[in-house]
Amino acid sequence: MRCPSCQNENDAGAAYCDMCGFDLTPSKQAPAAESAPAPLPPQPANPHQKRRTVFEPDPAAPPPPPAHRGADFFANPPPPRPTFDPRDPFAAASIPPSRPAAPPPAAPPPPAAPPPRPKARTLVETANEGSAAGLIRGALFEYRGPTDPGRVHPLRAGRNVLGRNPDCDVVVDDGRVSGQHAFLFIRAEDASFIDVSSNGSVVNGSVVHGEQVVLQNHAVITLGGTTLVLVIVPEQLLARRSP
Fold it and tell me: Do the beta carbons of residue 230 and residue 222 sit within 8 Å?
C-alpha cells in the first residue's frame, strides 16, 4: 500500500505509514443526514368546534367617559371662573387669588407627667388633745399560773411602751423580750398593738412580727415566755364615775 503523503510502499493492511506515520486506514463516511419527516396532510375543519369573536379597542379612539360623572366632578373640580368688573366689562379678567394652603395640623400636646408618687411615711399614734391623756384606761395582767396571778401593769390613754428596759411603761422581766418590744395604744373602745421587736410576738395565738393589729378587750398577748391579758375600761364607765 502506497502512502499518499510520502509515496512509501507499505505492507498490505498496514494502518500507519512506516516512513511518515500517516494514517492509512480508510476514512469512515459520515452517515447521511436523516431526512425531515413528511408534513402531515391538512386536517379538515371541525364544524362542531366553538368559535369566539374578540374585538380589539381602536388605539385612535378617545378614552371612554367615567362611569360616574359626579364622583369625577368632585374629585377634579373645574378651575375658578374669572371675575369681571361690571363698570368696565372690557377690562381684563381678574382671577381671584387662590386660597392659602391650610396650615398643617398642630402636633398633639405631650402627655401630662404623672403626679409624683407619695413617699411612704410612718405615722405614730398618740393620744388626742381632747382626751384625758395620762388617765388610767386599762391594765395588763401578767399570768403566771392558776395560783400566782402575777403583776398588774396599768395602761394609760395613748401610747404605752412594752419591753425589758426599766424606762418602759410596762416592764417585762424576760430575757427573750427586747428592750422596746412593742407599742400598745389605748383608744376609746379598743387598742392597737404594734410589734417592733426582733423575735416577734403572739397575739391571740397568731404570730405578729413587725405588724400592727387591733385588739379588743380580754386579748391575750405573749412576749417571749410572758403571757399578758388586756383589760380596757370604756370611756362611758369613766364618765359615770367622774364627779
Answer: no
Grid cell listed for 33: 443526514
Q: Are strands 206-208 and 191-195 parallel, antiparallel or unpaired?
A: unpaired
DSSP state at residue 134 = T
| Separation of alpha carbons 221 and 208, rounded Å | 10
**pLDDT at res. 65:** 65
**Closest C-alpha among 151, 131, 133 to residue 141:** 151
Distance CA 1, CA 20 (A): 14
Nearest to 214 by CA among 191, 230, 187: 191
Cell of 163: 419591753
- Percent over 90 (pLDDT), the chain: 21
Query: Are the C-beta atoms of 142 and 224 separated by less than 8 Å?
Result: no
Output the pLDDT for position 241: 52
Q: Are 157 and 135 in contact (CB under 8 A)?
A: yes
104-127 per-position pLDDT tens digit: 788 888 888 777 765 554 444 444
Q: Where are the beta strands (DSSP E) in 55-186?
A: 136-143, 152-156, 158-163, 170-171, 182-186
Query: End-to-end alpha-carbon separation of the chain, Å?
Result: 168
- Residue 18: partners with Cβ closer than 8 Å, 6 or more residues away: 8, 10
240: three-class secondary structure by DSSP: helix
Of 40, 34, 12, 8, which is closest to residue 21 (Cα–Cα)?
8
Place of cell 506515520: 21
Q: What is the DSSP letter of 203?
A: E
DSSP state of 190: -
